Amino acid sequence: MKKLFMFLLFTIITFSQNIITPEEAISIGLKNNFDILIAKNNNEIANNNEGKGTAGFLPTLDANGGYSFSSSDQTSNSPFSFGNSTTKGYEGRLSLNWTLFDGFKMFADNVRYKELSKLGDYQAKLIVENTMVNILAGYFNLVQQELLLGIAENSLKISEERLEKAKIRNSLGGASSSDLLNAQVSFNNDKSNKLDQELRTEIARKDLNILLAQDPETNLKVIDKIDLPAFTKDYETLIEYAKEKNSSLLIAIKNKEISESNITSLRADFYPRISLNANYGYSDREVNSDSQRFTSAVTTQSKDASVALNFSFNIFNGLRDNIDVENAIIESKIRDLQLSNEENRITGLVREKYITLQKRLEKISLEELNVTAAEQNLELQKERYETGTVNSLEFRDAQINLSRAQSDLVTAKFQARITILELQQLTGNIEILEK
């Protein structure tokens, strides 16, 4: 008994572990998604570029050093001959270059790099949001297909029971061949529908596995219902959220700001450039000789230092600077138009999805009433069919109406769930809100 209990417990735990929740699906997908990994690396590059060093505020310091060695063998009757000698030399130099003024270009570049860093954050956020929406849409599509498969299986079961009863009645002379054939046709149709739905379910499972970046043949298990999270925000609140937090809109705003800082950066070429240069050098030279005239090494040391303030100003370069600034201004106008277009697009989408959600919630309420009525009607027709007061076609109509009502309810819930996801992304509030 104890072994049986442990076996059942292990089976239950194993089965429950195979069922992944929407949260777990997102966790798997975000971890494995290649687009997100690429976006994170690009964002790191943008963050690394943010700083005073990349903008040109800080000086550059270079160091150079060298060592030289030479040997010579001289034969001469001159009293000043060195004879055999070796010469060693050491030298080093430090050079400092610092731009003190570049027409405010460094300030504009510093702002631009900061904005590019924020732009990278928004772009990465948008990719994550798109991935989450795609994963959740794929997840709930699989839930939908499995629920529809359950409806198809239930309809097939009813048709199978009807076929068995028709065979028994026909063998006893209580049912005509027409009733038996109708029951057989209904059974075959429902079996065909079940096969089609099994295929759609497996395709949905494969699609979800691909979204999760895992083996398409992984036998995913999902929850068996589509619950709708509470979504009570009014239209004005949704519009306000969208203008503040929508990732696509934030990207458009940031692109506009970057284009403005680019104008300031290019206008710096109209100003003079002032830079500071400083150098310090040291050298040491030593000569050793076996000549009797030189009893010790001859050494020479030197040190030098210099400081210079450089001024440069471009007088004419073929109007290239003017053209660059004019093009940057045009680019900024383009970004402004793109921003206005994006604002209009987002506002329109929020309105569309908000109205769509209201209609789909109304449809769910209507479909729930239809399911209740269809269930009651099928039970009534089933009793009448067994007593012979209705024919097989009337019973079949009641059966089809129930399957259609149940399928329509599942589809309506799926569509409403996806609409909520789209609204959450549009308003910058994408999250999992499961009951």
Tags for this entry?
alpha+beta, 2 domains, disordered N terminus
The biggest beta sheet is recorded as: 4 strands, antiparallel
The overall pLDDT, averaged over residues, is: 86
CATH topology of the largest domain: Outer membrane efflux proteins (OEP)
CATH superfamily of the largest domain: Outer membrane efflux proteins (OEP)
Secondary structural class: alpha+beta
Description:
By secondary structure, the chain is an alpha+beta fold. It folds into two domains: 19-56 and 103-271 and 317-426, Outer membrane efflux proteins (OEP); 61-101 and 273-312, no CATH class. Helix content is 66%, strand content 15%. The protein has ten helices and four strands, in the order H-H-H-H-E-E-H-H-H-H-E-E-H-H. It has helices spanning 2-18, 22-32, 34-49, 52-55, 105-172, 177-211, 235-245, 247-267, 320-387, 392-426, and strands spanning 60-73, 84-101, 273-289, 298-312. It has a four-stranded antiparallel beta sheet, with no helix packed on it. A hairpin with an 8-residue loop joins strand 3 and strand 4 (298-312). Helix 5 (105-172) runs antiparallel to helix 8 and helix 9 (320-387) packs antiparallel against helix 10. The longest helix is centred in the N-terminal third of the chain and has 68 residues, at 105-172. The radius of gyration is 40 Å and the shape is elongated.
List strands and helices in order, with pairings.
Elements: H1 2-18, H2 22-32, H3 34-49, H4 52-55, E1 60-73, E2 84-101, H5 105-172, H6 177-211, H7 235-245, H8 247-267, E3 273-289, E4 298-312, H9 320-387, H10 392-426
Antiparallel strand pairs: 1-2, 2-3, 3-4
Helix pairs in contact: 2-5, 3-5, 5-6, 5-8, 5-10, 7-9, 8-9, 9-10
